[in-house]
Structure formats: structure tokens, C-alpha cells
Amino acid sequence: MEEYFLFAAGFIGTLMASIQDMRKREIDNVLNFSLLILGLTYHAFNAIFSHNYTAFIYPALGFLIFLVIGNLFYYSRMFAGGDAKLLIALGPFIFIGNSLIQSLEYMFYFILLFLIVGSIFGILYSAVISLRNLKSFSKYFRQEISRKKSLLFISLGFFIIFLAVGFYIDKIFLFLSFLFLVFPFLLVYAKAVEKAGMIKEIVYKKVREGDWLYKSVNIRSKTIKPSWQGLSKSDIALIKKAKKNVIIREGIPFVPVIFIAYVLFMAYFFGWSNFGIAGLFG
Questions:
Q1: What is the pTM of this model?
Q2: Sign of the alpha-carbon torsion through 65, 68, 70, 76
Q3: For the chain, which ranges sit under pLDDT 50?
Q4: Which of left, alpha, beta for 215 (phi over 0: left; psi -120 to 50: alpha)?
């Protein structure tokens, strides 16, 4: 029953974060920090009452490990700040094994589920954007193909070389040849999707902290340049004071991916068979 309470709290927290992300494209810090504090507090009381202090040590270690993972995702520009904070807050909800090895196993399955769900979600999300903006997507796709002709020809050359090597030496080169063939087109596709549906001009009144500028904004003697950290409160104050609209770049909302991965993790924890998906991992 204790695990049910913990997972219910994690489920509600990630669901609320997903709704916020889809509606406002941001997550309240209060929600992320509340989820983290709830997880750590739950394990602390559980350790005290059960006289088993490893019941707190492992989740606390999980928080530290997820702190590192969240920052890696953030600084590699895969996550925005809110996404990373939510992932960090889930550390005490994931790292809950009876031993260090079991806790690491839980973490491995959660990260694997996240990567699988994230890949599928990213493909579907970008496909929807390209279909909704088909005319502009087609235009930008042709432009990107034209701009990256040399890269495509070089990749095609490597594809042919590695394909030949794969047939005569080792099949691993067949896989590498496939990467050389697909990667440039994925790069072109992603750039076309971004230009067609993820770059928008917004009214200065609706600018939010963390928004990613696509183009620099000149306000009198100051220039606000695009940065991965996004717009700061001082930047927003300047923009609103100057009443200047800005062009921003939206990213793929990854919080719903974290939510789905967490639900699947709960299914794994309580037994796949209880959720009708037995055998997903063998």
C-alpha cells in the first residue's frame, strides 16, 4: 500500500505537469519542488518508522543521480529547464529498490522507456506539425535540401562505401551505412519542421521567462541575443517596456513523454501482466 501512495503522488504530479506543459508550455517551479519534497519526505518518514535507513538513502541517492541526468539533458539542449527539474524531482520516485543494484535496474528501465516513448512522440509530433503546415514545410524542405547538397552527396558516398564493406567484411558496417544514409535527411527534415511550425512571432505581452528567442532583439542600446537559457525576467521587462514583439522558437513538449514513461514504469514495477503488457521486456 505504501508504494501505491508514492506512485499515486508521482502520477498526479507528472499528469499536472503534462497539462501545464501542453497548455502554457511551462511548468511551475512550485509543482516540481513540491513533488521532490513530497518524495523525499515520504521516504524519510518511511525510514524512521521502519527503522530501515536505507529506505531513505537509496531515494536520496536517486535524487542526486537524476540531478546529474537532468543537467546532462539540459546542457546537451535536449531539455528545457522545467523538463529537467521534473525529471530530477522524479528521482526519489524511481530509485526505490531494496538494494542499490535493484534501484539502478529501475532507473535503467525508466530511462529506456523514456527514450523509446520520446522517440515515438517526437516522430508523431513533428509529423503532425509538418502535415498541418504542409505547404510551408514542403518549401523549407526543398530549401534545406538545396543548401545541404554537399553534405548529402558526402553522406551518400560514405553510405556506398560502408555498404560494400558490410557485405564483404562485417555486417556492422551495414548498420553504419544506414546511419550515413538517414541522418542527413533527418537533419533536413527537423530543420524544415522547425521553420514551418515551431518558429512564431508573439506579442510582447505574452512573452514568458524561458522563451527561446529565434532572432536577436534590439532595444535602444541593448541587444538581447538568443540563448539556451531563454529569456530572463530582466529581458522580459525590457521587451514589455519597449512594447516590442519577438520571434521565438518552440521545442517539443517532453513533459508528456516523462508522464507516459512514468506510467509504464509503474506498470513494470507492479508487474506487466497486471496491465496487459506482459513480455514487453521479455
A1: 0.71
A2: negative
A3: 273, 275-282
A4: beta
